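STRUCTURE:
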C-alpha cells in the first residue's frame, strides 16, 4: 500500500468510505448484516482508514463502523477513524454535542479526524472553530479538517484552526476535476494539506472509454482499479472508495499497487 504523510501522520493512499453503510440518509437495519460483512472484509484485507459521518444513515453508519472495529483483531491505535459534523450543527454548543454523540455511537474515546461535512449558509466559522479547537485541545479529536470547501473557505479555515487543517475532502475522479479547476488541489499540494477524494469511481457508475479500457487491459486490471490508480497518482491525494462486495473491496485495495506510466497518467488526465 502506498502512503501519504501529513503533519507526521502517515495514511494509506486508499481507505474505506462508509457512505451507504447502514442506510443512506436514514438507518436501514435490513442492511446491517451486509454492512458489517463489508466492514469486516475491509478490516481483514488491511484497510486502516475508515471514513464515516453523523449524517450517514443518521448516525447508524458510525455505530456499525464502531462495532466492526471492536470485534476485529485490530487495535484502535492501528486505525485512523474519520467522521464529520453536519452543516446544521455548526454553532458552538451544537458542534460539541455532535462530536459527543458521534463518539458515543462509535463507542470510542476519540476520533483521529473530525471534518465539517459541508459549508453551511450563514455559518459563523469563528464560532464553529472555537468549538473544534476545544475538541482538539481536549483530545476528543486528533486532527481537524473540512469537506466540500472551496478555496476561499479553505483559506478561512486555515486561519481559524489552532492546529493545521489536515484535509479537504472533495469529489475527484477521472470524470470530475471541479476541485482541480477551482484551484483547491494545487493549494492543498502547496500547503501540506491532504486532498481526500470521494466518489473516485463515480459511485460505481464510472463511464467506460477506450483509454480506460486499453490501460486496464495492459495492466490486467478493471477500469475501476485504473481510475483509482490515476486518482492516487497525484501527490498529496488519497481516496476512500466504498463497496459492499468483498471482491471489489479487495480490488480497490489492490489498486494502490498499480504503477501507471507517465504516458498513461497523461492520457487519462487529458482524455
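SEQUENCE:
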Amino acid at each position: 500500500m502506498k502512503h501519504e504523510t501529513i503533519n507526521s501522520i502517515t495514511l494509506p493512499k486508499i481507505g474505506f468510505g462508509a457512505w451507504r453503510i447502514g442506510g443512506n440518509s436514514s438507518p436501514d437495519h435490513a442492511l446491517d448484516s451486509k454492512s458489517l460483512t463489508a466492514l469486516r472484509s475491509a478490516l481483514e484485507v488491511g484497510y486502516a482508514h475508515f471514513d464515516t459521518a453523523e449524517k450517514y444513515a443518521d448516525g447508524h453508519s458510525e455505530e456499525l463502523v464502531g462495532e466492526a472495529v471492536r470485534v476485529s483483531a485490530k487495535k484502535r491505535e492501528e486505525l485512523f477513524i474519520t467522521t464529520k459534523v453536519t452543516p446544521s450543527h455548526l454553532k458552538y454548543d451544537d458542534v460539541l454535542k455532535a462530536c459527543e454523540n458521534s463518539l458515543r455511537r462509535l463507542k470510542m474515546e476519540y476520533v483521529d479526524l473530525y471534518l465539517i461535512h459541508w459549508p453551511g449558509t450563514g455559518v459563523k466559522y469563528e464560532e464553529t472553530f472555537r468549538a473544534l479547537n476545544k475538541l482538539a485541545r481536549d483530545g476528543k479529536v486528533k486532527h481537524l479538517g473540512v469537506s466540500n470547501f472551496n478555496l476561499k473557505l479553505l483559506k478561512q479555515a486555515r486561519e481559524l484552526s489552532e492546529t493545521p487543517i489536515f484535509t479537504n475532502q472533495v469529489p475527484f475522479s477521472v470524470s470530475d476535476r471541479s476541485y482541480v479547476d477551482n484551484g483547491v488541489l494545487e493549494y492543498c499540494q502547496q500547503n501540506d494539506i491532504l486532498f481526500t477524494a470521494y466518489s473516485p469511481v463515480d459511485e460505481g457508475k464510472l463511464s467506460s472509454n477506450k483509454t480506460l479500457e486499453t490501460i486496464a487491459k495492459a495492466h490486467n486490471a478493471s477500469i475501476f482499479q485504473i481510475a483509482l490508480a490515476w486518482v492516487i497518482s497525484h501527490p498529496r491525494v488519497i481516496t476512500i472508495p466504498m463497496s459492499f462486495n468483498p471482491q471489489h473491496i479487495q480490488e480497490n485495495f489492490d489498486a494502490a499497487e498499480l504503477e501507471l506510466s507517465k504516458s498513461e497518467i497523461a492520457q487519462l488526465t487529458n482524455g
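REMARK: The radius of gyration is 18 Å.
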